[in-house]
Amino acid sequence: MNDPISFEFSQLLTQSQRRIYAFILTLLPNRSEAEDILQETNLVLCRKAAEYDPDKHFLAWAFKIARYQTMAYLKSRSRSPLVFQEDLMEKLSEDAESMEGFGSLQRALAQCLEKLTKRNRELIRIRYENGLSLEESAKKLGKPKGTVSMALYRIRTALWRCVERTLNEMSTQAR
Questions:
Q1: Which of 23, 29, 69, 151 has the maximal Cβ count within 10 Å?
Q2: How distant, in Å, are the alpha carbons of 20, 83, 93, 139 from that of 136?
Q3: Does residue 118 register a pLDDT over 60?
């Protein structure tokens, strides 16, 4: 890095950490992995600080870099059937890159979470809000790891289908 990062840029980056992290979580709902991707995203943002156009929206630029970092991470890992399909992740991240799209995504996800059964919401809460690993979640629930893994897969699939439907309905109503 030849040029030092400006004070204004470092303020924007610092103020945006929670939103960038939340954006990454919409693409990859594993807190530990999302934190790693956030750190990588921050490194890239700092390396590219001189390329940032202050006349453009900082978060949209940061979200785009975060999306690329997440996609690179998933491509390198490509290990789990639980990772969202790349085309769906692309659509959601494009929607989320605009501030309006990010709000719509959050509203759609909140609506869909409310539609889950109490038991399924509790499973999602234990796994993601508490940041527990799959093994820790299974142990806390007193269930086999495979059972919890399959239940989470089914819940996530249902959630993302619901989110897609809800976003389509929202865009249709907006027209």
A1: 23
A2: 26, 19, 29, 5
A3: yes
What's the full length of the chain, in residues?
A: 175
Q: Which helix (H) or strand (E) holds 100?
A: helix 99-115
Those residues whose C-beta lies under 8 Å from the C-beta of residue 44, and which sit 6 or more positions away, are 65, 69
With a CB cutoff of 8 Å and minimum separation 6, the contacts of 96 are 23, 26, 63, 102, 105
Query: Is residue 116 classed as helix, strand or coil in its secondary structure?
Result: coil
Strand, coil or helix: 73: helix
- Which residue has tokens 């992740």? 89
Tokens standing for 135? Answer: 């093994």
pLDDT tens-place string over residues 34-52: 899 999 999 999 999 989 8
For 172, the token pair is 């249709």
Per-residue DSSP letter, 28: -
What percentage of the chain reaches a pLDDT higher than 70?
A: 80
Amino acid at 34: A
- CA-to-CA distance for 68 and 66, rounded, in angstroms? 5
The residue ranking higher by pLDDT, 165 or 102, is 165
Among residues 154, 155, 151, 129, the alpha carbon closest in space to that of 138 is found at 151
Nearest to 12 by CA among 45, 41, 38: 45
